[in-house]
UniProtKB/TrEMBL annotation:
Name of this chain's protein: SAM-depedent methyltransferase
GO biological process: methylation
Keyword Protein transport appears in the UniProt entry: no
InterPro entries, sorted: SAM-dependent_MTases_sf
Keywords: Methyltransferase, Transferase
Gene3D superfamilies: Vaccinia Virus protein VP39
Keyword match Transferase: yes
GO terms for MF: methyltransferase activity
PANTHER family per the UniProt record, alphabetical: RIBOSOMAL RNA LARGE SUBUNIT METHYLTRANSFERASE M (PTHR37524), RIBOSOMAL RNA METHYLTRANSFERASE FTSJ DOMAIN-CONTAINING PROTEIN (PTHR37524:SF2)
Amino acid sequence: MSSSETDPTFGMFTCAHGAEGIVKEAIAEKGWRLSFSRPGFVTAKHDEETTLPTDIFIRTASKSLGSGKSGDADELIDRLIEKLSGLPLPFDQLHVWPRDRAPIGRFDFEPGSDEVSRAVATRIHERLGPDHLRCATANDVAQPSDRVLDVVLVDPSHWFFGMHTASTLPTRWPGGVQPVAPEHEPISRAYYKAAEAIAWSGFDLRPGDLAVEVGSAPGGACGRLLEMGLDVIGIDPAQMDPRIANHPRFRHYAARAGDLPRRIYRGAKWLLVDSTVKPDATLSTVRNIVESRETSIRGCLITMKLGDYERASQIPRWRREVERWRPEKIEIRHLARNRCEVCFSVTLR
Ligand SMILES: C[S@@+](CC[C@H](N)C(=O)[O-])C[C@H]1O[C@@H](n2cnc3c(N)ncnc32)[C@H](O)[C@@H]1O
């Protein structure tokens, strides 16, 4: 069928503040024509009816239903209601979130809902009611196949409306950000990053399994692993927080990973790497560990520091390097909690 015979597709995408350039390049290569964008938010049109693209740096993707601009929230909700006429209703879920207003970690910025978007979500949910929405509250985690109505606050008075069908875990989380309720105050933000990496990877971490983290200080990620009931080894020349160091299921090697004998990894099923080391050096350390006869690692979650987004061009080369280890599966994602870095999830045979 020629393009003139199908309806165009309008897409809206969110990503980290600063990653929009890479998202634009990735979708333009797939035939999308770029339209309105802001840091952390991209819209585009495809001349044909097509599925939404995926990419390492795309955090959320929705079919766009248009936008509204007003200082009055109720006016914007009227506009949203107009856009919904003619669509199959009700939606299963309502997800409302703001675009990232700063790079992750800068001024302590973290992605996800904020006070304004939570108030807006409550108001939209109230106004739309059961004719439009099946969910009892806004911003619940969607089930696979749920139809989700998306509202992105590009600014508090400029909203974009869209919809998507939930499938993978990140598409089920409101705004692609995992809702996490820590048992204790996390030791560092790496707690959230590890929680997201573990959930996204689908690795079957079980209580009693042994996990090793390279680059473990001060201990946010180890805190998550301990909370999940694992035995944990942390490798880092820097000191661990005493709450982790004194935990009965934790052992610390105060050294650089490359300086330790392979036997300390014996019995470990899971390897997490989050050291401030250049990606090529990180990969050679991990290769030495996973290819050793003394180890039997099942899955690795490797944080690859980019430094700046231009270095994302190296990702295919790093992927080829990991392919040499003959893994069963490699997945790569710019996690919502990643700064300028990506996570490689590597399933080993
Ligand atoms: C981003 S921090 C890790 C945060 C940690 N994952 C957490 O959950 O709190 C990076 C760490 O990498 C460590 N590091 C740097 N080079 C290393 C190496 N060769 N081996 C092990 N750790 C290293 C640094 O000492 C630093 O503590």
